[in-house]
Request: fold
Amino acid sequence: MEMLGLYPVFYFPNYGSAWLMGLTGTIHIMASHTSVGAGLLFAFLAHKAYKEDRPELYDYMKRYGMFLLIFSYVIGSITGPGIWYTATAASPRGISALIHNFVWVWATEWVFFIYEVIGVFALIYFIDKVDRKTHLKLTYTFAIASVGTLALIIGIISFMMWPGNDAYYNTGSASDAFFGVNTFPHMFLRIGFMIMMSGIIGMIISSSMKKENLSLSKELTQKMGIVSLLGGFLTLLSFMWYIMTLPVNAHAILGITLDSIIMNRIILSILFSVYFGIAIFKPQWISRTLAITMMFVIGIAGVWPGEKLRESMRKPYVAGQYIYSNNIISRDVPGKGIKNEVPLLAANGYLKMDPWVPTRLRTITPENKLEVGKMLVTRACSNCHSLEKYGSYRPMMGLVGKIAQDEAGIKSYIKNVIGTGSSPYMPKIALPDEEYDAMAAWIATQAK
Amino acid sequence: MDATFINLMRDPAGVPFFPVVFQGLYILTWALHAAFVLLALGALGLSLYGSTKQKTDSNWKIFNPHLIMTGKISVSMLILLGIAPLLFTQVIYDSGWYVANTLSGAFVFIFVYALIAGYMMYYWYSSANKKSNGGTLIGLISFVILVFCGILMHNFAVESISPDKWQEWYAPNGVIDNSGLNFHIDIIRLAFMVSLTIPVVGIFMQNYSDFLSTRKDFSSEYLTFVKNLGTKLAVVGLLISAVLFVVWMLQVGLLFHPVVLATIVSVVILLLLAMRNKNSYVTTGILVVVALFISGVRELIRYNIMSGLGYDLYGYPMNLEWETIIMFLLTFVILGFTGIAFILTMAWKIGKREGVFDASKDVAVTRLANVTLAIFVIWIVVYFAWGMVALFKNTL
Ligand code: HEM
Reply:
């Protein structure tokens, strides 16, 4: 019998492998967004320095640049492929789908990325080695290259949420997949955030220049305050636009958490407006410690929940609304000749269709029933739930405990809710009855 | 074990272009990745020795900071250049790459954070060295971490070409292991890869010396010192690598394959050129050829293993994708080449002289700068235009 093209399951205890990806993603966003924002900021500063003949601004750029090299480029350029690597370990078929749709887009981004990284070294180390006019041109190209990397990745990550329309399923074209209704709002959301981040980081640098040059430090802190405020405003506006372009299943998750998200965003907006206000009106009050603290606040209270939300909203899919988080293809994509796997799995079950099942576990016996159950649950559910009772990532045993107390109840939940596809955020996992039995048996032993 | 198992894991979306193109790009870009891996580790490794000499030896005092800087930039380059083969390998050998990544999932995660730690420590080492001519210990830790990253890379490579062992590795004795802690190395292959760091840094030193020979602020005695040391490293290193290469080829049974023989010939030419030490730029040219051959041999090994099992690489189902490949080709050739030419020409001319370089008076650089800027602007305009058309077509 034809099996499914599944891969081995990697499971990271307590957190689940997807959580690792979220962590790497958050760090990456902080670093990469700062670097694109800084690309724009540098263009602005270099322009000013050149037109108004203000050499001291070059010193600032140089300091900022050194910070960037270490913070953004080291961390950003490693966590970039890093997300990809960890995402691969967590959802190989999800990444495979993206690669096989968008490899040339990624390759194009790679060209920009090369220019960006060679450019950043040149931009910083050549500040006082090359004439200002040529340096200014370099800064302009660098800014566009940075935005270009965003322009190229944004369609891919928007496609992860959804293709935005049905055209892609019929044409299979990467261009249709790339430019969905979600792509541009998502892009401006990020550009806003990038500009804001460049200001937030800029304040770290400007506030630490007080000793050498107080008036310059104040002037720059003020400017960074204005930049951040504008960036923040663009972020908020685009966030609303972005929410309006999300698919239906995203609203299911959003519905559960919407109030707390709105609360979080309101508090953050007020907090940061005050902060940027201080920077503008009382720049001397901004100290380096404060500036660094605020950077962490935005990371921990802003980006991390935002990333978790984006991951949740995508559920039950991992990419393009045709591939589930548990690596099963959930619909036909005629444009690519891709076939829905859900009915096949329902008819035959994992034990027959998963090529990675060891021979001794292919048939359920009283002795191996629990082991099979564990294997199936790991395969079917661990991408979204940690399996330990007190795990940190949507702990399944805790969630199950709220719904059913015994094996029969658990089975009936999996079979009648998840198995029929009635949960808006969980995949339809329809399986033969005996596999539900084994899963329920194992879960019952763990949930106690 | 046969190809049905591997074929099963091929992506149902098919490949978007002819597999042979991805294979070629893979060989090309991996060679570049490897070149910078070797230069980075070689420069960092040698600088550790240098940092112990630096306080007393005036030559090392000048050379060591340059070595450290070279390694630092090379790490950035190797990361950048690693991305391309990472893309291409998983288009055509998706099964191998994804199996390796899941079997060693925990190491994938460790790799990312080790690389961050190792590279941050490198910056630390670099600034400690600037301040006090020291920092050897920090540098050593950084070096060890980065070498460890290389060993992990090697682990992924080995796993991805061992399809007949996958099931046993995933479920030893039929008991599934989801921990992602599989770790398998092939010591000869690894030793060969690592040994190449020595000749690469040696040839780099010859280049360095030739490049700076036009500058008056470096004494010829200093440059001769660097060059001679480079020659020694290149020759000794190449001999070691050559022996390891032959052993490796014996192990995989490919010693008499034409590509392998050609590799050996090119290594011998490289050795002679490095020894003669006349024009190091030519030597570097041959080094690039050798790197391409080694990359080709790696691919040959993989291709043989996979096709030996019946995996038909060139028969991978294909869904041709014109728009995006055209975008890539145009961007790569026009924007990429012009842009990089702009920065490198500028860098070359800056490096060749003392003081400020007035590029606005240099016709070539100015023209490159203007053209690059124009291409970037056009690119962005085309991008948005394309996006708007696609969106309107699909939503209205
Ligand atoms: C310090 C960091 C790194 C070192 C020392 C390193 C070293 C190596 C080595 C030694 C190999 C050859 C392994 C073998 O054939 O046995 C290799 C392969 C490879 N590396 Fe790296 N690497 C590093 C970082 C990276 C990064 C960041 C990426 C991705 C962005 C990358 C992508 C690749 C790819 C795709 C291959 C080929 C794997 C295959 O197809 O078999 N490397 N690397």
